[in-house]
Each structure stands twice: as C-alpha cells, then as structure tokens.
Design brief:
This protein is of the alpha+beta class. It has helices spanning about 5-15, 30-50, 135-145, 150-170, and strands at about 50-60, 65, 75-80, 90-95, 95-100, 105-115. Strand 4 and strand 5 form a beta hairpin. Helix 1 (about 5-15) crosses helix 3 (about 135-145). The longest helix is centred in the first third of the chain and has 21 residues, at about 30-50. The radius of gyration is 21 Å and the shape is flat.
C-alpha cells in the first residue's frame, strides 16, 4: 500500500473528506505533519508489533560483523549462520557489532529485524501485509490528534489502532476443542 492511501483515510477520519492527496498538495503543512506521524506509526509497528526481517550475506572480519555492513538499521540480530555450510553460530550483540563465538567463519548469513527509514507520501509503506491502510490511518490519527492537543480523540484513535494491531498479530488458525465425555 502507498502512504497516500493511508493518509487519505486518516483525513476522512479527521473530518476533511474533501482534501485530496497528490504530489501538488504534498507540501501542505498539514500533510507534511501527517507524513511525519505516519513515519512514527510505521516505526512503532516495526518495533512493537510486526518486525521487519531481512536476511543478508556479509563478510566476517575477525569474528565480528559490523552493523554498518548491513543494508538497514539493526534492531535485533535473530540468527547468524555460516554461509558455506548453513550451521548456526552463537553470537552476542554489542552496540556497534555482532561478535561471533566461532571466529573461523569468513562469510555469514545474518537474519535480523530492522528499523524502517522515513518514507515520503508517494512511496510504498514498509509494513507487513497484515496491516491494513485503515489500521495505519488510525495510528496516524492518534499521533496527529496528540500533537494537536486533542487528547480525548487521541485516546480514542489510539485504542482503535491497538485493537486493530492486536487483531493483525493474532494467530488465525484452526481452533480445536478437546473431545470430552458427557456425565
């Protein structure tokens, strides 16, 4: 989904149905603030609800993998595997690098969660497909109304956003009930 879809929905929620979101109106101060709010919400989703996960092949130097070698800003390293044979390696994270316990690894496959970069109004949102435009719009409205000092509305939007996010992350599968006997 593009960010402008979610912003259009949030404008509807905020009572401004007539406003149109396009490249000409993107420089309007209100839309700029909505884009900033959207970026805050996207980061909240990535850190608190549904992490963005990437796997990369990197070169290991002296048993250390610098975070600067990775494409994205690292939140958490999930696993490190030897690229040659796929065997997992133990590691520990430091503020600037990942230190491997096996120093013999030369190339590694690193799986990590990351913080998304800020996006503009005409770009694709880096969120899971489980997050709908409506859910993102509710989060945008919650941030926007909080910034504008509309605290009761902010609480209402925030509650709806959190409920939608709980629904998005809930496991949806077959519900099984244990067979029981009647007495």
């Amino acid at each position: 989904m593009e960010l402008k879809e979610a912003i259009q929905i949030s404008l509807t929620y905020l009572g401004d149905e007539d406003a149109s979101v396009n490249n000409k109106t993107a420089q309007h101060p209100r839309l700029k603030l909505l884009v900033k709010c959207a970026n805050l919400v996207i980061k909240e989703i990535a850190t608190d609800y549904i992490p963005l996960i990437e796997t990369e092949q990197v070169e290991v130097q002296g048993g250390r993998i610098s975070y600067e070698k990775l494409l994205h800003r690292v939140l958490e390293i999930l696993s490190v595997r030897n690229a040659a044979d796929g065997i997992a390696s133990n590691f520990r994270m430091t503020p600037t690098e990942c230190v491997l316990h096996n120093e013999n690894i030369k190339n590694a496959s690193v799986k990590y969660s990351y913080m998304p970069v800020d996006i503009e109004i005409d770009e694709q949102c880096p969120v899971s497909p489980l997050v709908s435009a409506k859910t993102l719009a509710l989060g945008i409205c919650a941030e926007y109304t909080l910034i504008q000092g509309m605290y009761e509305q902010s609480v209402a939007y925030s509650t709806r956003f959190k409920e939608d996010m709980r629904t998005a992350v809930r496991k949806k599968g077959e519900i099984k009930v244990k067979p029981r006997r009647w007495l």
